[in-house]
Design a protein that fits this description.
heterodimer; A: about 575 residues; mainly alpha; Sodium/glucose cotransporter; two-stranded antiparallel ribbon; about 70% helix; about 0% strand; globular; B: about 80 residues; about 5% strand; elongated
Chain lengths: ~575, ~80
């Protein structure tokens, strides 16, 4: 069988598996549609959370960014894992104790205000939609390679599948499907990494292989540093992203954003107990760490293999006409491009813009191309395609559900049409999903950044708006309606202005206002990292406004007392 | 009520301790102090680089389970655990 057929077979089989599970566990009532009847074991919930969480950004995009940014890409590694510490200690147990369906519901109740609830919905939609755009970029990359067509058509095919997939099942379908997806994606990510680590360093554990020695006795990372600096690139193990301040703020933004993302928080409503919510966050991170500690090895080894393929020895460059099959295949998608600037028929890949002939190397292709570059067997390459799709689909579905429930449950049922029937509520949520897929797909044609960068913006939006409101709602007795609303609006507003000013309004190219301003003008902080600044603004504004306005009513203070303790207080009773 | 506020204070102390560790391994070791740490090595890894791409993640996992374990003890001590 050729690669194409094997890929179709493996991807097809995994799809049949997911859809079978989704149908088998079809959502019956509205409650089950959103949170699966609150009966999911912490370990299983952790695994599903990990699949929900690890999207195209983690699977397809992140290792590519690590490969080309080296140490600088550590912001993604620390940022997307460290957030779970915040989640486990600052939010999850309390939100579970409170025990409602959605994030806006909690914010609306805690701040005794419909306005607060609507503001939370707006924040949620901005963050989730941006996140889905990032997924669409990843899905487009995967489908364009898999179907051997250009990126735009790959994206259209992906949109159709995501829609079909998300509408079919609710959360319950998704919970069990996501457990299956986790298994597929972690297997698909680790297998090629183990093969490559073995062949380069003789060590099957990629985490150790990355710190290990190669056949010639030199350390892999030292050799990589040497190769990339010879080509004029920054040293792999020390290259910072922007500045150290930018890295600091970037990491913080991703961590806070992790703890503020509605589709991740919603997971913690589904565990049976407060105790379960705490350990569930730990289990989720165990399953996430399984991928995140392998990713640095995947990135470094991909960079090494790519460099040695194009330039096998100093002064020996690959002849373009003799380029390997993977090179030709990726050229078809338009995500990899070569231009023979000096007309010698050979490929020069160097840092100098004038001499570099690899005019386009989309970072998002690295993970998918990696096993081909390393000449691994066809079934491994097919497996990676299936894993990438699993990651993108599971997250896109979880996010669409969060968007749909915020519109149908929070906005329609909670605010505008309180007596809507269950049937119409489900219908509304499905229509919302359809619209969200179309909008995200359209904006995904010209994403503001690579998949991981786009997703980072989504985290910034969540970090600047939802996380501070949730945290103050639990940890501050004094925080009131006016403070929370002002804080959310200020935090989201500042972040959106900074991002849109750089990337265009709703990321549409050419609409960035104040276009002529210096790039990253605020202390060199990139727009992707700006959420942390937005969060600081949010906390500050909220604290000031709350101080100047009346304290929340007594029953709200009792509610806060209530969610701070796991069980009922027996002595008080 | 006073018991609950004792419980809450004990919880906050535990959270602050855990967050101090969280901050140290990622922001201090992984970013602020990365250059001096890079003078040391862990096999082929420079130490600061290792914290940024491996060590911080392992610490995060341990930290959450540590917190969950101590909180469960605290719940029992103050008799506020679930059934």
């Amino acid at each position: 069988m050729d690669l194409q057929t094997i890929t179709y077979t493996i991807v097809g089989l995994t799809f049949v598996l997911y859809i079978a599970i989704a149908v088998w566990a079809r959502a019956a009532s509205t409650g089950e549609f959103y949170v699966a009847g609150k009966g999911v074991h912490p370990v299983l919930n952790g695994m599903a959370t990990a699949a929900d969480w690890m999207s195209a950004a983690s699977f397809i995009s992140m290792a590519g960014l690590i490969a080309f940014n080296g140490y600088g890409a550590s912001v993604f590694l620390m940022g997307w894992t460290g957030g779970y510490v915040l989640l486990a200690m600052l939010l999850a147990p309390y939100l579970r104790k409170y025990g409602k369906f959605t994030v806006p519901e909690f914010i609306g109740d805690r701040f005794y205000s419909r306005t607060a609830r609507v503001v939370a919905i707006v924040c949620l939609i901005f963050a989730s939609l941006t996140y889905v755009i990032g997924q669409m970029k990843g899905i487009g990359v995967a489908f364009s390679r898999f179907l051997e067509m250009d990126f735009d058509h790959g994206l259209y095919a992906g949109m159709g599948i995501v829609f079909f997939y998300a509408v079919l099942g609710g959360m319950k379908g998704i919970t069990y499907t996501q457990i299956a997806q986790y298994c597929v994606l972690i297997f698909a990510y680790t297998v090629p990494a183990v093969f490559i680590s073995l062949s380069l360093t003789g060590n099957p554990l990629p985490q150790l292989g990355l710190g290990g020695k190669m056949a010639d006795g030199s350390y892999l990372l030292d050799k990589l540093d040497l190769i990339v600096t010879d080509l004029g690139f920054k040293e792999y193990t020390t290259a910072v992203m922007g500045s150290k301040l930018n890295m600091f703020v970037y990491t913080l933004s991703l961590m806070i954003g992790t703890a503020g993302l509605p589709h991740v928080i919603a997971r913690f409503f589904t565990v049976p107990s407060v105790k379960g919510a705490r350990s569930s966050a730990g289990w989720a991170l165990v399953f996430i760490a399984a991928l995140y500690t392998v990713a640095p090895a995947v990135g470094a080894m991909a960079r090494l293999n790519l460099s040695t393929t194009i330039q096998p020895a100093p002064d020996v460059n690959l002849v373009y006409d003799e380029r390997p099959a993977w090179f030709k295949n990726w050229e078809k998608t338009g995500l990899l491009a070569f231009e023979d600037k000096n007309g010698d028929g050979r490929i020069q890949y160097v840092a100098d813009e004038q001499k570099n002939e690899m005019v386009k190397v989309d970072r998002d292709i690295m993970v998918l191309a990696n096993p081909e570059i390393a000449k691994l067997p066809d079934w491994v390459i097919a497996l990676v395609a299936a894993g990438g799709l699993a990651a993108a689909l599971s997250t896109a579905a979880g996010l669409l559900l969060a968007i749909a429930s915020s519109i149908s449950h929070d906005l329609l049922k909670g605010v505008f049409v309180p007596n809507i029937s269950e049937k119409n509520e489900l219908l509304a949520s499905r229509i919302t999903m359809g619209c969200a897929v179309l909008v995200a797909g359209y904006l995904g044609l010209h994403p503001p950044d690579f998949a991981a960068g786009t997703v980072a913006i989504a985290f910034g939006l969540a970090a600047s708006s939802l996380f501070p409101a949730l945290m103050m709602g639990i940890f501050s007795m004094r925080m009131n309606k006016a403070g929370a609303i002002a804080g959310m609006l200020a935090g989201l507003g500042v972040t959106i202005l900074y991002v849109f000013q750089h990337k265009g309004i709703m990321f549409i190219p050419g609409t960035s206002f104040l276009g002529g301003m210096e790039e990253n003008w605020f202390f060199g902080i990139s727009p992707n990292a700006f959420g942390a600044v937005g969060a600081v603004v949010n906390f500050t504004v909220a604290a000031l406004v709350a101080r100047l306005t009346a304290a929340p009513p007594a029953h709200i203070q009792e509610l806060v007392e209530h969610i701070r303790v796991p069980g009922t207080s027996r002595k008080a009773a | 009520m006073s018991d609950n506020s004792e419980y809450w204070k004990a919880n906050l102390r535990l959270v602050l301790f855990c967050l101090a560790v969280w901050f140290t391994v990622s922001y201090l070791f992984g970013i602020v102090l990365v250059e001096p740490l890079n003078m040391f090595r862990l096999g082929g890894y420079k130490l600061g680089f290792w914290f940024a791409q491996q060590g911080s993640i392992y610490t995060f996992v341990l930290l959450i389970f540590f917190y969950a374990w101590r909180m469960n003890l605290l719940d029992r001590k103050f008799n506020v655990h679930e059934e």
